[in-house]
Amino acid sequence: MLDFCTGLAYNKIMNVYLDHAATTPLLPEVFEAMRPVLCDDFGNPDSLHAFGRTAAAYVTDARDRIANVLGVSPAEVYFTSGGTEADNWAVRCIGEGDAVLSPIEHAAVREAALLRGGRIFTCPVGEDGIVTKAHLGRTMSEGVGLVAVMAVNNETGCVQPVEELARATHALNAVLFSDCVQAACSQDLKTLAAACDALSLSSHKLGGPKGAGALIVKKGVKIKPLIVGGEQERRLRGGTLNVPAIVGFAKALELAQARREEFCAHTGRLRDLFEESVLSALRGRVKIDGEGRAPNISHLTFEDGGETLLALLDLHGVAASGGAACSAHAALPSHVMLAMGREEEEAKKGVRFSFGLSTTEEEVLFAAKTVAACLKG
């Protein structure tokens, strides 16, 4: 076992990846689905010759399969380069007038809203990390055309009541967009898609390749193009499609939803084991952040947490994060923790541990002992 306190040579070093909320390993089944498009069927899907038609057939098949998983029409599926582009597209180009955002949204939503035009209102969130219908009702006003509330928070894992918020949004004739990037492995996407007017997904969060995502826009919702210069995606999103990544995305999404119950049971058990082990070892020096959480994310605030702890964990073989990977290089307090009522210093001391189907009990126990050793040393 490790002995951080005495500095003795380690008997055993593991490399433990507990940052699945940042990105996931590519599933073997996904790689196999992508292989023909990577190696042989390389055509541009917009070309009119046989090579192009073959590539276009892969895209059509992927679109149909994703639509089937979500319970939507293929015409409502628009491919993007990932979740960030999909978030930008939705927030900047859907719904007329002002917008209401939850304060716990990903930076792709919050910063895109600044470029939208009109007024931006922030809906409060409780200390538990949940946006309620009452919170939303106090924020809505005349002229609001878009409401954005993510389905699962990417830092705390708090699951938002999207169906309830959708009903409240629709009652005021506004459109609900939900960032579902962190929801795809643990939540029922058909239920979310039925409630939302638009939602975003990202391939690499669920065992697929980087470079592919989707924006789902329901029939009747008006959307303007974000990227122009081509006729792709029904003239609404210019640019040559990343066919191998799209094929992999479709396969990964099918697998994620098919394995959802297994995923929730496995990661929930390991997360609880991890938290129980850390809380037992550190007794009063750590708190669990948020309630009503997805089973695969654990956000813990440590008395001596923050960047130093993350560096020590990395040094000793445990990969975790301070929140969103997109903001990992900014030494700022977590906007999610601030929204939940934490003071600035405390909001800098959180660490997110996130788990996947490939995570093992041995890895979780090793990580918990490593956390305790780093903070006791």
Short description:
By secondary structure, this protein is an alpha/beta fold. 39% of the residues lie in helices and 13% in strands.
Describe the structure.
This protein is α/β, with parallel strands linked by helices. The protein folds into 2 domains: 28-258, Type I PLP-dependent aspartate aminotransferase-like (Major domain) (Aspartate Aminotransferase, domain 2, 3-Layer(aba) Sandwich), CATH 3.40.640.10; 259-376, Aspartate Aminotransferase, domain 1 (Alpha-Beta Complex), CATH 3.90.1150. The chain has 13 helices and 12 strands. It has helices spanning 28-39, 50-70, 83-93, 107-113, 133-139, 162-171, 189-195, 232-235, 243-258, 260-282, 307-315, 335-339, 361-376, and strands at 16-17, 77-80, 98-101, 120-122, 144-148, 175-179, 198-202, 213-217, 286-288, 297-302, 318-319, 350-354. The strands form 3 sheets. It has a 7-stranded mixed sheet with strand order 2-8-7-6-5-3-4, with helices on both faces. The protein has a 3-stranded antiparallel sheet with strand order 9-10-12, with helices on one face. A two-stranded parallel sheet has the order 1-11. Helix 1 runs antiparallel to helix 9 (243-258), helix 3 packs parallel to helix 4 (107-113) and helix 10 (260-282) runs parallel beside helix 13. The longest helix is centred in the last third of the chain and has 23 residues, at 260-282. The chain starts with 15 loop residues before the first strand and ends with a helix. Residues 1-11 have low confidence and may be disordered.
Assembly of the depicted chains: single chain
Which strand order spans the largest sheet, edge to edge or round the barrel? 2-8-7-6-5-3-4
CATH class placement of the largest domain? Alpha Beta
Average pLDDT reading: 92
CATH superfamily of the largest domain: Type I PLP-dependent aspartate aminotransferase-like (Major domain)
Rough shape? globular
Count, helices = 13
Strand content: 5-15%
Please tell me the total number of domains.
2
Report the helical percentage: 25-40%
By secondary-structure content and strand pairing, the structural class works out as alpha/beta
Low-pLDDT stretches:
1-11
- Per the CATH scheme, the topology name of the largest domain is Aspartate Aminotransferase, domain 2
H/E series, N to C? EHHEHEHEHEHEHEEHHHEEHEHEH
Got a strand count? Answer: 12
How would you sum up the major sheet? 7 strands, mixed
